[in-house]
Amino acid sequence: MENERINLKLSGAGSANGGFFNEVKLSGACNVNGDVDCNFLSGSGACDIKGSVTSKQILLSGACNIKGSVKTEILKCSGACDIRGDLEAVEVSISGGADIRGNVKSKKLDISGGCDIDGNVSGEEIKLSGGIKIKDDCECENFNAKGSFSIGGLLNAEKANIVIYDTCSVKEIGGKDIDIRYSSHMSASILKFIKTVFTNSSPTLESEIIEGDNIYLDHTTAKVVRGNKITIGDSCNIDKIEYKDSLNVTGNSQIGEKVKL
Fold this sequence. Notes:
Layout: E1 6-10, E2 15-27, E3 31-44, E4 48-49, E5 53-62, E6 65-66, E7 70-79, E8 82-83, E9 87-100, E10 104-117, E11 121-122, E12 125-134, E13 138-182, H1 188-197, E14 205-217, E15 220-232, E16 237-249, E17 254-260
Parallel strand pairs: 1-2, 2-3, 3-4, 3-5, 4-6, 5-7, 6-8, 7-9, 8-9, 9-10, 10-11, 10-12, 11-13, 12-13, 13-14, 14-15, 15-16, 16-17
């Protein structure tokens, strides 16, 4: 029964077995040996959970490690947290440095700082700032990114708004409205994470294929750009453009073949 759940509080070098709890509060270099099912979990310092976590709300700070999957309504993480499995949530906010070894599924996802995700990312609202690496695909309704990122597979978004501060790469981009622009203005904190994750970079987004209805591109290198209405701004290098309605080249870009469909 829910009212039979007890609280668990560990600090320093304390340890406990996993189980069903109401509130779990961990601080210091403590360990939980097993899966945790609770209503609320907070972890600070170098706490270590050797299993999966199911909780309504999770607050992590410091160098917290979870060696299994995480399922929650709300996850807020600051510091250098490490999740070894999948992450499923309604709302996720990550700042600092995080390493997620599985897939991420969240209705609302906000990541700032430096973050590595070794799987797919999916949600409705995805906001990235800093230096982010996603190994596989990223799928959402609204994708907003500022800084530098690397996506190993397809970025599929109804609306994609990308502001390039440094190097960005994605294998393919597909969507309805795609807007990619360059900015030389960034905060010192974002610059710190970009230089940590990406080195010897240039302010360019690189992609093999970009396909959408309405497309605006700055500082973009692509093999193929395909869409209905396409506008090309400054510093683009595109091998081939295929368009249905209109093509407008306004900047100093290098364009190869132009094909009206």
